[in-house]
Protein 1
Amino acid sequence: MIKSRLEAVRALLAEQGVDAVVVTKYVNLHYFSGFRGDDTTLVISRDKAALITDNRYTEQAGLQAPLFEIVEQQDGLLSKTAEVVKSFGCRKVAFEGNALIYDDFQKLTELLEGVEFRTALHLDKLREIKDAEEISYIRKGCEIADKAFAEVLSFIRPGVTELAVAARLENAMRENGSEKPSFTTIVASGLRGSLPHGTATDKVIEAGELVTMDFGGMYQGYCSDITRTICVGPASEKQRFIYSKVLEAQKMALTLIKPGAAGKAVDQAVREALDKDDLGKYFGHGLGHSLGLEIHESPRLSKKSTCNDLRPGMLVTDEPGVYIPGWGGLRIEDTVLVTENGSEALTRANKEFIEIPLN
Ligand code: ZN
Ligand code: ZN
């Protein structure tokens, strides 16, 4: 697995005409070496691979990254990294354009005198298609999130705060095997529902309010992502109507997510569906994003998507929403795997409209 990932990096090095790349992004250290820790760099050349870290991590790195030569640094991570680059005899070296901070770039440029250090690579692209092991981790994370949703339903009632709901969700995910939340849990109730990213506050939930919960549990370093919206007590006609339209659009998108589909086209189809009831104008964000070691990855399903060809093994979220300032809003989201023939929603929690009985 790591072997084929290194091969992919080396193919990219050859394509770009560089001898090596310095890897600094946390999730890419993990992906390309197997090592799970920070304050570390990788130097991957056409025929060598080194992991530079400090004494806290040398033993762990030896166990987790057997394909790498482990180099311990004592006087500075960047100076040791530069030393390794030189010892590998590299003349032209790339860096991660979206991950190396400017100060470190400048320092490395100075330390690498005589080495051409100006090619920016985006290694994230190599993580777009997930292998069977990665898919199994994401599937498990989705199952954990599903269980948490089922458990939190019996807790939500008038008088509890959004923060208490978030705590229940996060605790349930932990108890079901998640390492930590994939991102800051969103619980937006009542008027706050018009905030697409309304993270939980101390607002008290009241009868008649919609409650949007967007959350996910990390498993083996991989994210999951689900949104469900429920009503506390009987819903109004308008709440039921808008929910039914968002759900219809969300389910329609599931049928469009398949190999060969373009990210822009799937997004556009959902906008057009919502427009039939004049709701498209309340849907301001993209339809979906990929996820994996990070919660937001490419490919995207949006107006700006550059993906013209979804492929089996890719993941995308399908998350239309309607947000009306002064009224509230709702969203329904699944994590979806692109399969050989179509797609499979990995999150399976009930998404028919739930109106929690008031007793
Ligand atoms: Zn989400
Ligand atoms: Zn999402």
Protein 2
Amino acid sequence: MNEIFDKANAVLAEIQSSAPNNAEELEQFRIKYIGSKGILKDLFGFMGKLPNEQKKEYGQLMNTLKAAAEAKLEELKITFENGKPSATEIPDLTAPGYNFPLGTRHPLSIIKNRIIEIFGHIGFTVADGPEIEDDWHNFTALNTPKDHPARDMQDTFFITPDKEWMLRTQTSSVQIRKMESEKPPMRYIFPGRVYRNETISARAHCTFHQVEGLYIDENVSFVDLKQTMLYFAQEMFGKNTDIRFRPSFFPFTEPSAEMDISCFVCGQKGCPVCKYTGWVEIGGCGMVDPAVLENCKVDTKKYSGFAFGMGIERITMLKYQINDLRLFFENDVRFLKHFN
Ligand code: DAH
């Protein structure tokens, strides 16, 4: 009766090696092996002819055969059903590739980077400080003690009831931090975000950006300040740009000045950007008040210095002739993609 075993084993090998290529061939495979008139049915039929002691072994072999045929049928059925592309799924190989849109830099970042680059050429390096500041660094050390009227110029977001902690109103606070932690000479710019309790409009926002500059060394004079500002203005706004200083007041500089640049939009003929004056204001500056140097334990007999502060939004609005500050914070990509 061994030839029955041999036959069944041969069929098992056949099942295992058979490879239907498509749904049609798979159906033929099904009919051939497990259909109602299939080979497996015939082979099961031999069971009755076997002696009892071989029945168990033969039964197990037949179960293996059946399981092998069914597994192959199931597996290939799934493959052929899933793999069969419907008419709409067939990819159009001639279609152009997908386009991955690239973002653009925010205009404030472009101008901030340009400012850093310009001052970098004349030896200024970048430093920063915390946006949550204490009274000493934001005001008192900057020669603006409590109850000084100059505090009213900057409507402050205090974050503790005793008004000891606040969101910094100016990047001038980083001047103090640097002078406290390092010895002169030093030449820094401090770009950063500042906060003031302002009603949001086309010209004001409660969050904006400044860049502060500080230069402390022996024999630094107002001449150095003027030349540094002229260099910056011409690099930023064009070689023909002129600058003008108007006397002003800041508690931390003495003397203090407001700096204007000649209007590069109209060439000083008069236009809405310069309000027909020929000049546009870009920031404040002055010689660091000796009281500030003393607060930071800088030897005022040996060292002097200048400082300046400019609004990055203001410079960006001038440079790109943007007339509404709110556009910077709305994140409308139609606006943002103008600045490549
Ligand atoms: N911190 C001033 C402000 O926010 C700007 C400023 C003016 C900074 C004059 C300076 C300076 O360093 O010398 O209004």
Protein 3
Amino acid sequence: MSAIPLLPEVKAFLAREHGNYIDNTSVAGSGVIFEVINPATGESVATFNAASQQQAQHALDSAHKAFMTWREMPTLQRGSLLLKLADKLAEKREELAQIETLCSGKTIQLSRLLELDQSVTFLRYFAGWAGKINGETLDVSLPSFAGEKYTAFTRRQPVGVVVAIVPWNFSIMIAVWKIAAALVCGCSVVVKPSEYTPLTLLRLAELATECGFPPGVINVVNGAGSELGPVLIGHEACAKVSFTGSVATGNAVNRTATAQGKRVTLELGGKNAALFLNDLSVTEMVNGIMEAGYLNQGQICAAAECFWLPADKIDAVLAELKVRLNSTVIGSPLDETTAMGPLANLAQLEKITQLVATARDEGDEIICGGEVLSGGGYFYQPTAIRVASVDSTLMKEETFGPVGSFIAYEDAEQALQCINASPYGLAASVWSRNISLALRFSERLEAGIVWVNMHTFLDPAVPFGGSKGSGIGREFGSAFIEDYTELKSIMIRY
Ligand code: NAD
């Protein structure tokens, strides 16, 4: 097989001048030009003109003006616009998937199935909340002295302008989580994409305009996060920051935001674990490891990086895993038969190379992989490493790549204690045919989401977010309502 041809509209889009999208208008930036690099080739596919600080402020002003009318729009009308945007993304699925693959190196199949199809699903899910975000009527106990009565009710009111700061690993889908949730609640949004993947969200904002979203409701500001982030967060109109990204940046964002009294949701990284109980076959464990650790080159925040295996099976599991990883079809992400594309950017490649070098220095055993692939682009071998001990760096530091760390346990109870000793807690999984036992482990694993006999699957109905150092707040389910609305009480004497 070979790479699919790019659609004419993709070529035309890439050739355009890119910048920012404010008030339903394309806005050229400050003159600071960034290259967008195709990680499969290392070559530039487009450039974008980053926003100035004044333009970032203009985006907030525009979002604030839009908020005043958007919040008053009948809720079902807001919901129907989200449904229209979902239909539009479904219609433009291939165009957006190709742009995403060119910018991020995600295989075209994953761009279609996860970035686009999941974005459509999430938009429809959140649209379904329109008309259902309600308060309650309350029973008031105040005494009546002259026949007067009291009642009270609560309302869920939109918090205002949301600054959504998103990473490069799922540039459309993660932004859609935030945009759809904020908009259905009546908030407006300024999105700050990653410097590596700025294009698909510019296109999404244009498509939203075509669907009839009023000016200023969805704005996209591109540029360096360290420069624009504090400006966006510090603007008086920013009521809330919804951040997804690394722990270090998230903590910096949290400090900036909370110092100014802004609400914050943080979806951060961590070091997720998968615990395989001893009743499974070697092949079942290998299947689970492949699902949990290597999708999208491991560049999924919820992916497992630490694998706990029974001591009497670890050798057999690693032998079979080695065969599977070595036969992974690695190649152009635009080839529909490719299972693994490049890492998303050079910084990512350098970080992983460094972490694997550290693993070697610390005496961890490289079972397979561990090398950069030659031939251009940012390709890295799928890698399995048997760590020397729980103290190995690879048991603590997120690689965010196709690098699994494997460790044997004699006693599953002790493995659980070690997993829970992590300062992070985004996601974990437990695998066993004994559902009763697996559920007991799931109750005690310290993570925002625990999967049983599965890993990484997200559903809009199921709340998602990190515990401990992996985040603050939850997205999806009904939990998002807390994030984007203020609870107001109204009391009445009559
Ligand atoms: P990152 O933290 O480097 O960047 C994320 C975003 O923050 C980018 O848009 C960046 O421009 C911006 N940014 C950078 N400095 C900033 C600052 N000072 N103020 C405000 N914004 C700033 O993360 P990344 O490398 O893009 O993404 C990878 C990380 O994201 C991994 O650690 C991964 O675990 C995490 N992640 C978490 C989730 C989740 O839901 N928990 C999902 C995806 C990725």
